[in-house]
Write a structure and sequence with these properties.
8 helices
């Protein structure tokens, strides 16, 4: 029961932490993408703006990575965003592997506790005989509590593991849309600058 209780406490801590960290407004602040696109359109991009943007949120980190190489070809911008995106996704999925592991091992720990309890009970029967059937039934019930406890930890852990995985995927898709919009704006700005330069020449 002790490992099951420890697993339960860890799972609860992870669930609460992920609920807090994966809030939409914390990952994708409202109107941030539109604001940065406006910056790109009006050329209000200096290192201080970009560094402050990087610290705001996961979306800000992605947008800042695109702005770092805004004067490079579109392929370079895409590669930089993908590299940063892998780091951002890793941060969003933080602790989810641990939660998934708890969902898998909790029933096994419960089953192991039940098996040990049954073994001890049968050894007691071998030593002192069957004795009181009610006491034996109580011993079996106590042993099965481990299995029930393991399942009570595993089911919510598995549910929230799947829930947070889905939430991360949803957030990533939304961030991709905003990064693509910024990349398009940077590409248009680059084309416009090139055309102006050619016309001036």
């Amino acid at each position: 029961m002790v490992p099951i209780l420890i697993s339960s406490a860890i799972a609860m801590a992870i669930i609460l932490e992920r609920f807090w960290s994966l809030r939409r407004k914390a990952v994708i602040p409202p109107e941030l993408g539109q604001q940065v696109t406006t910056w790109a359109r009006t050329r209000k991009l200096d290192p201080k703006h970009i560094e402050a943007l990087r610290e705001t949120s996961p979306l800000g980190e992605l947008l800042a990575s695109a702005l770092d190489v805004r004067n490079r070809p579109r392929e370079i911008i895409k590669e930089r965003v993908e590299d940063t995106g892998r780091h951002v996704v890793h941060q969003l999925e933080r602790f989810l592997n641990t939660l998934g592991t708890i969902a898998i091992i909790s029933p096994l720990l419960g089953l192991l506790g039940t098996v040990f309890g049954m073994i001890n009970m049968f050894f007691a029967v071998m030593v002192s005989g069957v004795g009181d059937p009610l006491k034996m039934a109580g011993g079996i019930g106590e042993a099965l509590v481990c299995t029930a406890s393991g399942l009570c930890v595993a089911i919510p852990a598995y549910f929230f593991h799947r829930y947070f995985r889905g939430k991360v995927n949803e957030l990533v898709v939304d961030m991709e849309k905003q990064v693509i919009a910024l990349t398009d704006e940077l590409h248009l700005a680059s084309d416009s600058t090139s055309a102006t330069a050619r016309a001036a020449g």
